[in-house]
Enoyl-CoA hydratase (Bradyrhizobium nitroreducens), 259 residues
Amino acid sequence: MELKFSKVERKGPITIVTLSRPEVYNALHTDAHFELQKVFDDFSGDPEQWIAVVTGAGDKAFCAGNDLKWQAAGGKRGWDKGGFAGLTSRFDCDKPIIAAVNGVAMGGGFEIALACDLIIAAENATFALPEPRVGLAALAGGLHRLPRQIGLKRAMGMILTARHVSAKEGLELGFVNEVVPQGEALAGALRWAETIAKNSPMSIRASKQAIQKGLGVSLEQAIAEQRDYPAVQAMVASQDYIEGPKAFSEKRPPKWVGK
C-alpha cells in the first residue's frame, strides 16, 4: 500500500510509524485514519515485528488531533474499527506500542498517546483534551483512559478546563514515563523499545494481555483466569519458554524467536 499520510520504518523487530501531515501539525482526517488502520494491522500481524513506536513528522507536533479545517470544509469524518489513527479502539494488539511525543499532542493526538503503552515526551511536548472549546468531546478514548491512568479528580481537572499540560507536569501526573530533551523523543522511545526487545516477545505479549484483561475484572478473577488468556497459553507453548531457562542455566544471552 502506498502511504500518503504516514511513514513506516523497521529497525530489526521495531516498527517506527510517523504521522506525516506536518503542514497541519499532523492532524488526521478520514483518509489518514484508514491508512493507519492498515499500517497497524500489518504491524499486529507481522511475527517479525515485536514493538511499535509512534511519532509525528517535524519538530512541532506529535498530532494536533482531528483536522477541524477538513471537517469544517465538509470533509467526511470517520475511521475504521481500530479507531482514531487505527489505535484508540484497538484492543486486540498484545505487542507494546510506545508514543514518542515530539511536540503538541492535542485532542485526538493526546488520545493516541494515551492508547499507547508508554509515553516518552520531549520537554517541549504539550498535552490537552481541548474538545469542549470547539463544541466537541474527547470520545476517542480520552474521557475514559485519562481517569483510569491518573485518577478521577486529576483527569476532571484537565478535561473540564481543557487546559494545556506540559511534559513535566504529565510526568508528575503519571501519564508520561520519561521526559527527554527537545528533539530526542524518538531516540528516547527507541531506547525503551530496545530494552523491551531484550526480553522474550512471548512473555511481553502475555504480560500486556494479562494486564489489560485483568483490569476489567476483580483481582481474584484476574489471578484465577490469567493462565487461560491466549497470549499466556501461547507463551507457555512457545520455544522461548524453553529457551529462557536454558539460556539462564548455560549462562548465555537468550536467543528469542517470538514463537
User: Anything to note?
Assistant: The first strand starts at residue 6 and ends at 11. Residues 23 and 43 are 26 Å apart (CA to CA). The chain has eleven helices and ten strands. The chain has a mean pLDDT of 95.
